[in-house]
Design a protein that fits this description.
mainly beta; 3 helices; 12 strands; DUF4178 domain-containing protein; DUF4178
């Protein structure tokens, strides 16, 4: 007597939306001059998924890697019924100085009011990720970082152990197409990211990996 049930293969995972991505999955970005050469038309692999927890909400962040090893981060934003793919790259202190000048950048931390800063120099390698100026959108706030995917799990209570606290300072361009995010961690370590905000339709050809 043959057991046909045992011979049946499990159905392959289907990816219908970038929000369903898991570690090991891949997707392609459209070939557009809105992106730098290393990103346009590129196929990206999800290498990790992490979570930023706020007092009343959270964001899932996908850590992505290109074939050449370039790292870029993706958060999916929903606003007024529209969805945006927010791609971010981290920049170093010398690059902050090159782009903004340290005196101009320091005003973000020194001024009591919400700061407006101007880009002093636009290096070619960052051209697609930079606006001409940025306006701080709100006062600094604390969030908790989890190096874990919490999409199908309950987050720890806000301010409880399990997450790493950091202070966030967010600025955006006038047209809200670009962002500048600053994360200040315990001990004073500071990370600066440039964000390019693009329509979700720029993400195409979702490829499921071996995640279950």
């Amino acid at each position: 007597m043959f057991n046909f049930f045992k011979s049946k293969k499990e159905p392959e995972r289907q990816l219908n939306h970038p929000s369903e991505l898991k570690k090991g999955d891949m997707f392609s970005v459209i070939d557009s001059f809105a992106y730098p050469a290393w990103l346009k038309g590129e196929t990206l692999r999800v290498t990790a998924i992490q979570t930023y927890q706020y007092q009343h909400s959270s964001d899932t962040e996908f850590v992505l890697e290109t074939n050449s090893g370039q790292v870029v981060f993706l958060q999916i934003e929903q606003d007024d019924g529209e969805e945006w793919a927010n791609f971010s790259i981290k920049i170093q202190r010398n690059e902050v100085e090159e782009i903004f000048g340290l005196d101009e950048f320091a005003r973000i931390f020194d001024e009591e009011s919400l700061t407006h800063i101007t880009v002093q120099n636009t290096p070619d390698r960052f051209m697609q990720f930079l606006a001409k100026s940025y306006q701080q959108s709100e006062s600094p706030y604390v969030c908790y970082f989890h190096n874990k995917d919490y999409r199908n799990q309950t987050l720890p209570r806000y301010e409880q152990e399990g997450g790493e606290p950091c202070e966030m300072i967010c600025l955006a361009s006038d047209n809200e197409g670009f962002g500048l995010n600053i994360e200040i961690w315990d001990g004073g370590e500071t990370e600066v990211s440039l964000t390019l905000m693009r329509p979700m339709s720029d993400i195409v050809d979702l490829f499921p990996g071996d995640a279950k």
